[in-house]
Design brief:
The protein is α+β, with helices and mostly antiparallel strands and 165 residues long. Helices cover 31% and strands 33% of the residues. It has helices spanning 2-21, 23-33, 69-76, 80-91; strands at residues 41-49, 59-66, 98-105, 110-114, 125-131, 139-141, 146-153, 158-163. Strand 5 and strand 6 form a beta hairpin.
Length: 165
């Protein structure tokens, strides 16, 4: 009986060590303990369109949250024109990997969205896309920003600011 009391804990520790030594198990444990991606930590997201922006036409803006790593890489590589051309097809993808907030603001207008609208789920990318007549890159990564996020759309480009917590 005494031998069993000494050997049983050692056998259990050995089994645990062997279990943790396998790569897939370690990866699974790490994913469980430290989930991939980030949770946006925004108090608010404010959008402002300058009166001189976009040749005095309304500005289409998409805020895109992507919870699939491969899809995030693909979308992050897109220029705004590519995004807006592919958006409707990507919306139809099964799996709920995309959360898209689309707004259209006339020049001189602003809109503030509550940060809680974007919190709660882990994402691999949070991006802003603006549909300017001038074309170009017109996108920005947002997932690492915290606090009050402000996006200002100028005549031909936009800037992103964050007032951290």
């Amino acid at each position: 009986m005494r031998l069993l009391c000494i050997l049983l804990p050692r056998i259990l520790l050995l089994q645990l060590a062997l279990l943790l030594a396998s790569c897939s198990t370690v990866s699974s444990v790490n994913s469980f303990l430290f989930p991939p991606g980030v949770k946006p930590d925004w108090d608010s997201l404010s959008l402002y369109v300058d009166p001189a922006a976009n040749r005095d036409f309304p500005m289409a803006v998409d805020i895109v949250l992507v919870s699939d790593e491969a899809l995030a890489k693909r979308i992050a590589a897109m220029k705004a024109a590519d995004w807006f051309a592919a958006r409707d097809g990507l919306r139809k993808m099964p799996g709920g990997e995309l959360d898209i907030v689309s707004v259209e603001l006339p020049p001189g207008e602003s809109l503030t969205l509550p940060g809680k609208r974007f919190s709660g789920r882990r994402v691999f990318a949070a991006l802003a896309f603006a549909d300017y007549f001038s074309g170009g890159e017109q996108s920005a990564r947002l997932e690492t920003l915290t606090g009050k996020i402000s996006i200002e759309f100028g005549a031909a480009d936009f800037t992103v600011h964050a007032k951290g917590k």
